[in-house]
């Protein structure tokens, strides 16, 4: 029979069969298969090397009879020419499947931007890292590579990373080395999981080598620091003071909470999740430290009445931040004091004031200064190490495990001696005339 629309509309499958095929008399191999469920599909049947083969042309309704017949005629011509349409179609289907898979893989790779990779690295690889590394490494990568965060991680080029690290290294070579180390570790982790191919951070160069800082504030500088901090309003004035009095890390002091302080204000316990070595640390609070804390009024939300848990906060909701700007202002106050002292001295000597040297210390140098002064004052290095909660101190191994909670009395004495030294070198009224200038700096 010749397959026609009217004829196909009447075709049905016998109830005892799953399907039945009806062939066209006009084009050899052209047929329609009717199933027991009523579906109808156009086919082209042929034989190749003694084997029966079949190509599905399409469903009746999607194709008209004329369209299906035309396809069958084309395929028959290819069979006569020696081709094998079924194998060709299979190859085409495989090619399409491979193309779609490649497209999906590319889309997934493109979706893994540098920013997303940093997030995944932080959530998975850094779970067991120290709290400070877990926070600092992703934070430095995001801030220093902010212009590249939207780029697909796999497409990041060595030249791009090199150019950015060169920019950072101009003013902050140590930071550039940190970024390289963090990036290399992150991409190494991603490579092992087949998330990327190649590590752009492994081939970049940061000129020079890591130089350990050995800067220690002189007694004069320590006095200048304390006097300037005493003039600064909350939250940064108390922040700078507590930093010097406790010798703890910047982020640990900034994140201090009221519930971490003992009821009698004798001790401050920094929880493990906020310390660099991941272990809780007890800090003795000297009389001077308690006076600073007593001068802080707990922040209360005017709308909700909620009392802030943070000792130092600009919002009441988060710990104090913005250290760079605050430190610049602290140093500006110190330079004001120096300028006035210099001008007065030159005036008395009948000379013109000379240019003042820039301050070369960082906040972290306070900790090194504290250890140095303690050594000068005959405090044992094992006690000084415990005051600072160094990851690696002078005592290690099993001894360190058993002595983790010891030296509390010695540490308290050491901090009291250190604080007395700070207050002694700070005794001066040289900045009392700076009041108006201080107000201007902190507006």
End-to-end Cα distance: 97 Å
**Which CATH class of the largest domain is shown?**
Mainly Alpha
Instruction: Please trace the helix and strand order, writing H or E for each element.
Output: HEEEEHHHHHHHHHEEHHHHHHH
**What is the helix fraction of residues, given as a range?**
40-55%
The CATH topology of the largest domain corresponds to hpI Integrase, Chain A
**Structural Rg:** 38 Å
| Uncertain segments | 398-404, 429-443
Whole-number total of structural domains: 3
Indicate the overall shape: elongated
- In total, the number of strands is 6
Which CATH architecture of the largest domain would you pick? Orthogonal Bundle
- Quaternary organization: single chain
Residue share in β-strands: 5-15%
> Which homologous superfamily in CATH is the superfamily of the largest domain?
Intergrase catalytic core
Describe the structure.
The protein is of the alpha+beta class. The chain folds into three domains: 5-83, Integrase, DNA-binding domain (Double Stranded RNA Binding Domain); 114-203, Tyrosine recombinase, N-terminal domain (DNA polymerase, domain 1), CATH 1.10.150; 219-441, Intergrase catalytic core (hpI Integrase, Chain A), CATH 1.10.443. 51% of the residues lie in helices and 8% in strands. The protein contains 17 helices and six strands. It has a four-stranded antiparallel β-sheet with strand order 1-2-3-4. Helix 6 packs antiparallel against helix 7 and helix 8 (219-231) packs across helix 16. The radius of gyration is 38 Å and the shape is elongated.
């Amino acid at each position: 029979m010749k397959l026609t629309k009217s004829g196909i509309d009447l075709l049905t499958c016998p109830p005892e069969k799953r399907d039945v095929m009806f062939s066209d008399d006009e084009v050899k191999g052209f047929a329609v298969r009717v199933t027991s469920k009523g579906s109808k599909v156009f086919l082209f049947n042929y034989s190749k090397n003694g084997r029966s083969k079949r190509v599905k042309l399409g469903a009746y309704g999607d194709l008209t009879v004329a369209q299906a017949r035309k396809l069958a005629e084309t395929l028959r011509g290819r069979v006569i020419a020696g081709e094998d349409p079924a194998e060709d179609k299979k190859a085409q289907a495989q090619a399409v499947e491979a193309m779609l898979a490649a497209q999906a893989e590319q889309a997934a790779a493109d979706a893994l931007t540098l920013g997303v990779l940093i997030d995944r690295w932080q959530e998975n690889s850094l779970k067991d890292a120290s709290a400070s590394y877990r926070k600092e490494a992703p934070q430095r990568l995001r801030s220093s590579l902010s212009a590249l965060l939207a780029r697909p991680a796999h497409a990041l080029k060595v030249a791009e990373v090199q150019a950015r690290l060169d920019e950072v290294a101009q003013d902050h070579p140590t930071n550039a080395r940190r970024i390289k180390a963090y990036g290399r570790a992150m991409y190494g982790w991603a490579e092992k999981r087949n998330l990327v191919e190649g590590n752009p951070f492994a081939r970049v160069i940061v000129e020079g080598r890591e130089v350990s800082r050995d800067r220690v504030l002189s007694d004069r500088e320590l006095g200048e620091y304390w006097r300037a901090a005493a003039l600064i309003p909350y939250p940064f004035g108390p922040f700078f003071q507590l930093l010097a009095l406790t010798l703890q890390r910047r982020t640990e002091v900034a994140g201090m909470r009221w519930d971490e302080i003992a009821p009698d204000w004798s001790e401050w316990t920094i929880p493990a999740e906020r310390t660099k070595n991941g272990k809780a640390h007890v800090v003795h609070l000297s009389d001077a430290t308690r006076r600073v804390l007593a001068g802080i009024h707990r922040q209360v939300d005017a709308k909700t009445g909620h009392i802030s848990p943070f000792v130092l906060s600009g919002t009441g909701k988060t710990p104090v931040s913005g250290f760079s700007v605050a430190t610049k202002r602290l140093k500006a106050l110190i330079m004001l004091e120096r300028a006035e002292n210099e001008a007065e001295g030159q005036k008395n000597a009948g000379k013109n004031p000379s240019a003042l040297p820039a301050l070369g210390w960082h906040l972290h140098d306070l900790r090194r200064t504290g250890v140095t002064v303690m050594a000068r004052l005959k405090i044992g290095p094992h006690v000084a190490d415990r005051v600072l909660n160094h990851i690696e101190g002078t005592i290690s191994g099993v001894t360190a495990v058993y002595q983790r909670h010891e030296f509390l009395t010695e540490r308290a004495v050491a901090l009291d001696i250190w604080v007395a030294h700070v207050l002694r070198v700070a005794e001066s009224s040289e900045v009392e005339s700076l009041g108006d200038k201080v107000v201007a700096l902190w507006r």
